[in-house]
Amino acid sequence: MKALFEYCQKGDGLENEDTAGHLGSCAWVIDGATDVFSDRKSGNTISVSRYVKLLQTFIEHHCREERSLEEILRSAVKELYQQLLQEDQSIAKAPEYQLPTFAVAMIRILNHSMDYYVLGDCVISYLAGGKINWIRDERISAFSKYNREQMKKNSLDPRNSSSAREIYRNTRRKANAPDGYYIGSMRGSGLQMGLSGSLPLDPGDRVILFSDGFLDYLNDNPEKIRCFFAADSLRREISLVKEYLENDQIYLKELRPKQIDDRSILLLEA
Fold it and tell me: What distance separates the 2 farthest-apart alpha carbons in the chain?
């Protein structure tokens, strides 16, 4: 596996809650969910940004070819939780949905095969034999769609509305709940529900992993995905994505939680 391009950029939030990396035959993108409970009077002191960066470090530590991607991730999450528990014992009592949660896409390319694991709204796409294929977790989409519909119905702007934040809080409470959505969490709930498998790849086939900061642009411009599989054209598209996200008219139509989300992408070659 060869890494051709890597990009990880903060949006308009206070910190970058994305991270991306690769080690040996493995690669990953992690997208931390922005804290919507930050004005509570008590609770843990672990920021989402810090959590995802630490999680990447622990993934690197556990990254071994004989282990499945889920095993690597589960071991990293478990060890990190024990470390953070020593720093702040309040996380043991906090509802899990108030603690950092994350979406993740992971792959391993080895011996003409790609193992994959996806949980939440990070995405894998690969170009093989001239055909573009997708691996994505659609289960969370209904909740994202509901949030946006509620914003429009109540004429809310997430940038400056406390009512908008309450909508996001209500959805976040459904993280790994029976009537909710599956997502990565500090205690490991939901990890067993990741989408995983293996598929063949030939030398020269290309793979991209990216966070949901690119999704609105690609949903509006689906033909552009082909440009993401070459480093030079991907650089140009990244500039166009930024322009798209900065456009107020488009934003008020889409009503994302952040106008400019964090964006991470890896371009790899088998």
Answer: 55
Give the CATH superfamily of 2-269.
Answer: PPM-type phosphatase domain (3.60.40.10)
Provide the pLDDT confidence category of residue 258 given band limits of 50, 70 and 90: confident
CA distance 82 to 128: 41
Residue by residue, DSSP assigns 246-269 as H-HHHHHHH--SSSS--EEEEEEE
Report the percent of the chain where pLDDT is more than 70: 97
Distance in angstroms (rounded) separating the CA atoms of residues 51 and 56: 9
**Mean pLDDT confidence for 233-243:** 97
Q: Could you tell me if 7 and 213 are in contact, meaning their C-beta atoms sit under 8 angstroms apart?
A: no
Measured distance CA(209)–CA(107) in Å, rounded: 9
How many beta carbons lie within 10 A of that of residue 268, not counting itself?
A: 21
**Predicted TM-score (pTM) of this structure:** 0.94
Distances (CA, A) of 157 to 227, 241, 256: 32, 21, 9
Q: How far apart are CA 49 and CA 204, in angstroms?
A: 34
3-state secondary structure 97-154: HHCCEEEEEEEEEECCEEEEEEECCCEEEEEECCEEEEEECHHHHHHHHHHHHHHHHC
Q: Is residue 90's pLDDT more than 60?
A: yes
Residue 53 one-letter amino acid: K
